[in-house]
Write a sequence for this structure.
């Protein structure tokens, strides 16, 4: 009897997954774009200063005892880009991608234009949605974070980081686009290098910032679709193009 | 002697204004667009619920004693769109433009694409920057507001309202664009009608929202340039266009 109950549960799960997949495909199939459904990563133990600590060796974050930041730090060493995991890993740029894939099972997508579909936007802060994006011969990391900068007022922050040096990052422009309910919001900027730390980009607010009500307007059934495009930089002629 | 001192002061003022004007022209002349330098409007007496009171007749704002909102309210009556002035005026849609021009000296600009140059962004909240924009046979009101939704954290909110009915407003799309320092932020939406109240649009956050650090990145010498374009609405095909 238990076996049949379990089977029935599994079938229900499959139907649900199939429905979710169909829904995602239905929404974006018209554009013929690659859609990646990204599930959230939630952790009660939040260590926002992990990366700052790695950069300055004077961070006040709660670091695991085996995280030897007191030692002289190699500036080319990147701490793990999943701060919510409180992962003590550090490594050189060349091995960041394999660490993120193997240890944290972060998906990697190919293509110049993709759609990032973040599910369960209602989950409490802090929550991260992360994917890697392989494009133009480089790997980028898209981080969407729900965080309470002001207590009781969660906001969403989205940014793109190049898994490379700041000089390499200057060669690219990324675009994040939200489009729903007769509203469109576009953010274009030069990606930061993962050496610069995602936490400081978000705390500076130098990224796409959404308050909860705007995130709800752009969401469909608790999922937020963000169109992503990466191009090689042209010279920004700020004034002439306005 | 006093006369000469005053003359000297006036000459200095003229030089300063000429410099400001030249600076604005220099920045945008390449695009051949109309630039409107908009000075802020600051008031210590802030009555954010003025409009809500006008809509519901149950507002709790500090209203002047001669503001008879207890009476049955004509839904087509628009309270004055300059809440910071605490102006008790109310009138029908047809006379809103002349009231704003004559009583509050709000500029009106012609053209499908203009640049709104808000000066003195550093002024403390609450502060408003307002212009009217005449385009496609209608008048629109652009409101940029600096407000502290969360105490100690001022934010900037920009929205466009049609001086017309909600049905008329549905025929248009407005775009606000910031472009500087290798960053670009675009907001596109259907304008709201002035009958709907600018305060509620801003408190809902259903507009372009900028935190202070992002506003600084987009500013030049304390002035923020916002490119404005208005078009007649096409059917928004949210998914296909992403």
């Amino acid at each position: 009897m238990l076996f049949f109950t379990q089977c029935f549960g599994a079938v229900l799960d499959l139907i649900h997954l199939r429905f979710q997949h169909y829904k995602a495909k239905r929404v974006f199939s018209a554009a013929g774009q690659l859609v990646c459904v990204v599930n959230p990563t939630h952790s009660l133990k939040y260590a926002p200063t992990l990366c700052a600590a790695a950069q300055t060796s004077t961070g006040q974050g709660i670091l695991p005892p085996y995280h030897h930041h007191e030692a002289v730090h190699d500036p080319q060493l990147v701490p793990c880009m999943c701060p919510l995991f409180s992962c003590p890993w550090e490594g050189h740029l060349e091995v960041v991608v394999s660490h993120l894939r193997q240890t944290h099972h972060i998906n990697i997508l190919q293509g110049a234009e993709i759609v990032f579909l973040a599910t369960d936007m209602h989950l409490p802060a802090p929550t991260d949605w992360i994917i890697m994006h392989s494009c133009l011969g480089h790997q980028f990391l898209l981080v969407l974070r729900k965080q309470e900068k002001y207590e009781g007022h969660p906001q969403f922050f989205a940014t793109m980081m190049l898994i490379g040096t700041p000089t390499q990052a200057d060669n690219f422009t990324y675009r994040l686009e939200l489009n729903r309910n007769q509203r469109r919001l576009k953010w274009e900027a030069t990606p930061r290098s993962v050496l610069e730390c995602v936490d400081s980009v978000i705390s500076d607010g130098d990224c796409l910032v959404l308050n909860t009500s705007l995130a709800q307007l752009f969401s469909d059934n608790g999922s937020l679709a963000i169109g992503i495009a990466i191009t090689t930089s042209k010279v920004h002629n700020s004034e002439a193009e306005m």
